């Protein structure tokens, strides 16, 4: 009997380290080393889904040392065509308060040291990246969130910083002055690597805090982020259930237009 291959992959962010009560684990070989953890494959909303925790099972990998290439390659090797990237983000504006679910449509890369491509010499290609996220995936995510009773903030720009430290107040205020709405540490290079592999990438960003420059106070702490994520985990899982159920089985976008020549 042929083992069913997952068509949807979920990458869990801070606070989302497991997804299935029962599932089989696989450790795909990649040219880039080991993924953050074993990939768990199980059933969600009646479909086969592959899950990998971005930071590892015990949050042992900081944003700047995550093996993003191995994580995405592992999902691709298993047959995944669509990726849902779950992440904790801070808000750069009081109009997007903690507890909001954001399905952003743009990002700005402010990272400094990450390997961000599969196209090492002699394989050279230039990914189209004007619109980083899958348009059909984003539309479906909005529908799923509304159906689950958690109306999302649709659109907006996430600035991705190197981490693992949080921003100074001056940095935070500068980001906000550019009109950017949220701030995180892991969306990049994850989403561009998905694009290079021809995977459709849909973001689900949970706002856990107001960033340091938004209001007076002690600033953001790791405990703030983890506590807020845990408080909203049930709602987030409900959105994931709806999203997995609603995502089209066939890709209906141009996210799969570019793949590395080594494949």
Automatic annotation (TrEMBL):
Function: Purine nucleoside phosphorylase involved in purine salvage.
Species for this entry: Streptomyces luteolus
Catalytic reaction list: a purine D-ribonucleoside + phosphate = a purine nucleobase + alpha-D-ribose 1-phosphate
Binding-site list for substrate: 185, 209-211
SUBUNIT field: Homohexamer. Dimer of a homotrimer.
Alphabetical UniProt keywords: Glycosyltransferase, Purine salvage, Transferase
CDD domains with a match to the protein in the record: MTAP_SsMTAPII_like_MTIP
PANTHER family found in the cross-reference section: S-METHYL-5'-THIOADENOSINE PHOSPHORYLASE
Catalytic class of the enzyme: transferase
Domain Nucleoside phosphorylase: 7-244
Important for substrate specificity (site feature) positions: 167, 222
Homology family: Belongs to the PNP/MTAP phosphorylase family. MTAP subfamily.
GO terms of molecular function: S-methyl-5-thioadenosine phosphorylase activity
Associated pathway: Purine metabolism; purine nucleoside salvage
InterPro entries reported for this sequence: MTAP, Nucleoside_phosphorylase_d, Nucleoside_phosphorylase_sf
Residues binding phosphate, per UniProt: 14, 54-55, 186
EC number(s) reported in the record: 2.4.2.1
Protein name: Purine nucleoside phosphorylase
